Structure formats: C-alpha cells, structure tokens
Amino acid sequence: MSNSDLRQRSLAAVWHPCTQMKQHAGDQAVAMIPIASGKGVWLYDFDGHRYLDGISSWWVNLFGHCNPRINAALREQLDQLEHVILAGCTHRPVVELSERLSALAGGKLGHCFYASDGASATEIALKMSFHYWRNRGRQDKQEFLCLSGSYHGETVGALAVTDVALFKDAYAPLIRAASTVATPDARLASDGETAVDVARRAAAALENHLEQHHHRVAALIVEPLVQCASGMAMYDPEYLRLARQLCDRYEVHLICDEIAVGCGRTGTFFAHQQAAIRPDFLCLSKGISGGYLPLSIVLTSDQVYGAFYDDRISRGFLHSHSYTGNALACRAALATLDIFADDRVIDANRLLAEQLARGLSPLADHPRVRHLRQRGMIAAFDVLNDDPGFSERFCRNALAREILLRPIGNTVYFMPPYVLSHDECEFLVAGAIAALEATLVA
To answer: CA 177 to CA 197: how far, in whole Å?
Structure first.
C-alpha cells in the first residue's frame, strides 16, 4: 500500500476529528499523513518516511509506540479475559488498578469509576457532584464553575464547562452553560507582577463569585497547572491551594481534570500534588493506558461514595458505559504504572525536562517569540504572527523536518513521550526551531 492510496481511501471513508475536511482536498491541501507503523518516539508512513511524535499522539503515548512491556502484558491478558460486564461482575485488572491508583492518591481517593474517554470522565464527575448534593438534600446546588479558557471535553455535558469558542459556540443552544471565573494564566501578569500574583488575583475573583453564589454551586472544575487546549496556559500552584480553601469554606466540590496533565506530565504523578491538596474528584484518561486503549477513570472520596450508599436504587450513581473497566485497557494501565515504578520515570523526566528547557532557551530572545514556558514535560511558546494559516504552515514545515507538531493557533507546544533519548530531544528542538524560521520567512 502507498501513502497516496491510503490517504485517498481515508478521505473518502473517514470523517476525521477536529478537522475541516475540505482543507485536505484540492491543490493546496493540508497533507493527511498515512501511518503504517510506530516504534518508540517514531512514526513511519507507507513510503518509508519517519516522523518524531512530538505530541505523544494527542498527549496519550507516554512510553513509545509498540512498547515491548505493554505489548507483553496485553498478549498475556488476551489469553485470560478481554472484557466482561462490570455491573454484577468484576475482574483482577480493574481491582488491582483501582487499588494502585488509590495508593498513588495517598489513599484518600479510594473509589474508582470507569469509562472510556476524557469527556465521559468529566461528565461522570459533574453528575456525581450534582447527585451528591441532591442525595444530601441540597437540591439548590446545581451549577458549576470553570476557568476562563478551560477545556474539559466536547460532549454536550462536558461542553458546559468548556470555554473555547471554537468547540462550543455552534452547540450553544444544547448546552446548560457553567459560570466562568478568571483564569490564573501567568501570561496575564501586569508589569511587576509574578505568576503567584496572578494566581492570587484569580483566586480573589473566585472568592467573590463564591461569596455571592455558593449556595447554588455544586463544583469548581480546573485543569491543574496547565490549561492545555486553550494554548498551554500555565499557572502557579498557589491558585490550587487557594481554590481548595475556598471550596472548603463555601461547601463546593473541587474537580481536578488531570486527563491531559496527570501521569507525570507536569513533573509529579498527579499535577495537583504540587499544591499539596486533595480534590474531591480526580479525572484521568489519555496517558493512563500508555496510549494503547481508551480508558478513563474518576477517583473520589469516602465522603462522596457514602452519599450514594443506600437501600434505594434511586440514590445510587446510575451511570454506565458498555466497556466500563475493560480488562485489556486496565491491564495496559497496570503495565504503564509498572514502568513508572520500575524505571523511576518521574526522576528521569526531570532530567529530560531540563534538557528540553536548555534546547529551547535560545528562543527566549527571539524577536517573534513570547512567553517561553515549561511545566515538567510540557513546553510551549507563543509566536507573534497575524497569519491565520500559521499553524498549518508550521505543521508542514515540521513534517518536512521529520517532526510531528501541531500548534494551537499561534502557540507551539511540545508534549513528547517520556522515552525520548538525548539525541532525539536535540533533534526535536532543532527541527522545531528550523520549522519556525521557515514558517516566519514564508
């Protein structure tokens, strides 16, 4: 099979996500990249070209494509159990995964509810919070808060707490929108302000809102430390500390959406750990299965669980997915956690993050670059550019240099797999800088 053959067949039969399909048609089309195989940080097409996966295939692939340890675990699981209904049945991988995640959360979030994607995890957390207050006789607490620029998924429920117009505006009539409070995005600092100052200013706005409306608010949902889809907006942990205090004071749940920023991405296994807090709900997906299989999980506390524990079925959490707790996906997640433990990945990532920072440091003085920033294994910078086609042109120039990067608007970001070697890190950075220069010249 050739690249052109698969590309044409895909464009005829597959409706691709987050894509204006017309951009892939005609003489000036954006190339659709046919991928034949993957190994480590590399993807290979049918014509033998390779591409370094600088975005972990939509932020999911932690330990490289076709990782031999995850592969081996899945082969073993295939001969034991592929899937079983989780209503009335259970199995070893889902029990072991729940126990291990609870331990990683300090034993304070000991109840795991499973689904298959991040948006579903968001909706589960929102519904649990709403239903908790209902079961506790607080039917007035039906509203949600999110941060300006937040992203928590694209299903109708998740869009209620997503504040990205591109995803939300077309479906506004379907959505029961949440209230939006100020983001602690450090890029909003005025002259003389620090990231901590911005965090405190945003927390003050949150306090003002809760003081007036807390009796109606069920939960605040945040992406801890990095708001990814709105352009890798990074903020100081001080905001999480203050938000936790305010949620406690005003009896509001705190939902930490770590779908993208969990699993070691920000420098600790869970991002909220950098603020030394505990959320009421913790949403995980993407990297938890190593990028192998769809899986999402909501962890919550004894207190929340206890509000549903009753003789009456109507007080139970009546939510389900056919593939809830899929045995293969849970086994992939267990293999992923084994790699974290056996290879001391969090420690190794600190060294890799330092190398990435050194490579990108010259861009701090680039006349067209602003807000070079990094949090663990996420790095980003904004480009001064008025061309609405910047993202597509940068992507093409990066691909020409054997690198897969997809800017968010004028924000170029890096979220590579954790198995990036020293030489591959240098290759990624050098190629990205060269692609930037080529894009700005064009």
So the answer is: 29
Percent of the chain at pLDDT > 70 equals 99
For residue 114, give the DSSP letter.
E
Rounded Cα–Cα distance for residues 245 and 140 (Å): 22
Q: Do 281 and 129 touch, CB atoms closer than 8 A?
A: yes
Question: How many CB atoms within 10 Å of residue 381?
Answer: 24
Query: Tens of pLDDT along 403-429?
Result: 999 999 999 999 999 999 999 999 999
Residues in the chain: 442
How far, in Å, CA of 235 to CA of 16, rounded? 32
Give this prediction's pTM. Answer: 0.96
CA–CA distances in Å: residue 91 to residues 114, 213, 238, 283, 315: 13, 43, 40, 22, 25
Closest residue by Cα to residue 439 from 368, 381, 390, 405: 390
Domains detected in the chain: 35-64+346-441 (3.90.1150.10), 70-342 (3.40.640.10)
- Cα-trace Rg, the chain: 22
